[in-house]
Specification:
The complex is a heterodimer of chains A (about 200) and B (about 110). With about 200 residues, chain A is α/β, with parallel strands linked by helices. Chain A is about 40% helix and about 20% strand. Chain A starts with a helix and ends with a helix. The chains are: A alpha/beta (about 200), B alpha+beta (about 110).
């Protein structure tokens, strides 16, 4: 009887998977919104701030031991929310958001360093989420570069078409462009399809 | 002081370059304000190296680059890929006629 209970306990126990999950993508794709949502699901608090000013995340934010259940697995996530990757940082853009010249120049310098950090972080993750803003044309060379590098390094990744709650979203176009690669469409802001995303993470981990 | 210029780099020309030399050459040209038309594509690791170098070079005058990939028909079936590397610098903006993709490139002076 005792043995039966132990066996039941063993077989009902969820399999654990520890994953270093990196969130990558262009500036303003919704990476921190997604990181905040995952962190909130796991520990009830957010990781970083979202203000609408470009390059809000200028350093990698990391959260460890985020336990999330997905698809019969207990995922133990180390989450890396990385700065947006871009090919240019124009300090004058920040002045449009009310920052003075000096603040804007400093922010541009930090943002540029953040891009380098984000690129280096590609080597440090087990799985990458490539967050794409599905309201924009997805042909940006940054996305192509990220996919090319992840494939070159054999790092599993998921294309995450974000912002599907918006009327102008076109996740189908994103799916078509990255044809054949693991794909999930979500809204990090509204929490749509996050279960599907986590299932996909558990599946490829 | 930047100068307006367009540099065409043929695949033949870069054949003898190491990856590092290729990146340095492109970086130096765009920092001078030249638009670079590279015959062929950057490999994914060259692409990331270029972005890293560009980010380290960003200043109050030089804001980075924009990358475009264009295809040009060569005969009936052949297509050549060109990578256009456009500098973003203080003082003027390159404007590409993306509808034509025939390399209609003009520079617009900024105020």
């Amino acid at each position: 009887m005792q043995a039966k209970l132990i066996l039941q306990k063993i077989f009902s126990r969820k399999k654990k998977k520890s994953i270093k999950l990196g969130i990558f993508g262009e500036v303003g794709a919704g990476k921190t919104t997604l990181a905040n949502l995952l962190s909130k699901i796991a520990i009830g608090k957010e990781m970083g701030s979202v203000t609408g000013i470009p390059h809000e995340t200028r350093k990698i934010n990391m959260a460890e031991n985020l336990l999330i259940n997905a698809d019969g697995y207990e995922l133990n996530l180390t989450l890396l929310d990385t700065p947006g990757i871009t090919t240019y940082v124009d300090f004058r853009e920040f002045m449009k958001y009310g920052l003075n010249r000096e603040e804007s120049i400093n922010r541009a310098k930090e943002a540029a360093k953040g891009v380098v950090e984000a690129i280096k972080a590609l080597d440090k993750v087990d799985i990458a989420l490539l967050v794409v803003d599905s309201t924009r044309m997805p042909f940006d060379q940054v996305n192509m570069m990220l996919v090319g590098n992840l494939e070159l390094k054999n790092i599993p990744f998921i294309i995450v078409a974000n912002k599907i709650d918006r009327e102008d979203a076109n996740p189908e176009m994103v799916k078509e462009l990255f044809n054949g690669r693991p794909f999930v469409e979500i809204s990090a802001l509204k929490g749509i399809n996050i279960d599907k995303l986590l299932e996909k993470v558990a599946e490829i981990a | 002081m930047h100068s307006l210029g367009i540099e065409l780099i043929t695949s033949e020309f870069v054949k003898s370059f190491t990856k590092r030399e290729k990146i340095r050459h492109i970086l130096n040209s765009v920092r001078e304000g030249k638009i670079v038309i590279l015959e062929g594509e950057l490999l994914p690791d060259e692409h990331t190296e270029l972005i890293k170098e560009i980010m380290l070079a960003i200043s109050n005058d030089f804001y980075g680059i924009e990358l475009h990939k264009v295809f040009k028909k060569k005969g009936m079936f052949k297509k050549t890929v060109y990578t256009i590397i456009e500098p973003r610098i203080n003082g003027f903006k390159w404007m590409l006629n993306e509808k034509v993709y025939g390399f209609d490139i003009i520079a617009k002076l900024e105020n």
